[in-house]
Write a structure and sequence with these properties.
With 146 residues, the protein is an alpha/beta fold. It has five helices and five strands. α3 runs parallel beside α4. It binds 1,3,4-trihydroxy-5-OXO-cyclohexanecarboxylic acid.
């Protein structure tokens, strides 16, 4: 299977910002971990990051229109909590999307408790650092195998 892993706003600073919340691993290190986990299971990965909402929407559209992906992992960062544009893009595409967060958003500020994306995603994983992405891959694979 082939998975597209999309990280949104501010995730490029992972490993450099708020290390107590997001850990010391950089996004490149997290992505390398996901890639080796997937390779070991015979799966392929592709990675994308942008701080720009419209570019994330465009990436979801092109993944759908150009094809080639079985599933998508999306950590939209703060866009999670208010981007109806991303929500509509997820609803528009016929590829299962898993919502992922490094931190446990439910143990943090109230505004992080709500996601406008969850309703149109297949599932949500949060709070396990890089492990959230790995768990989401497992979840999507189980879903796709049915
Ligand atoms: C995050 C959680 C969001 O609330 C926050 O805005 C982020 C990162 C996470 O991975 O824990 O930027 O998506």
């Amino acid at each position: 299977m082939k998975f597209l892993i999309i990280n949104g706003v501010n995730l490029n600073l992972t490993g450099k910002r708020e290390k107590g919340v997001y850990g010391a691993a950089t996004l490149d290190e997290i992505n390398a971990k996901i890639a080796s986990y997937c390779t070991a299971n015979g799966d392929e990965t592709e990675f994308y990051q942008s701080n720009i909402e419209g570019e994330l929407v465009n990436k979801l559209h092109s993944a759908y229109l150009e094809g080639g992906y079985d599933g998508i992992l999306l950590n939209a960062g703060a866009f999670t909590h208010y981007s109806y544009a991303l929500r509509d893009a997820i609803a528009a595409i016929d590829i299962p999307v898993a919502e992922v967060h490094i931190s446990n958003v439910h143990a943090r500020e109230a505004f992080r408790h709500n996601s406008v994306l969850s309703e149109v995603c297949k599932g949500v994983v949060c709070g396990f650092g890089a492990g959230s992405y790995l768990a989401a891959i497992t979840g999507l694979k189980d879903y796709l195998a049915k």
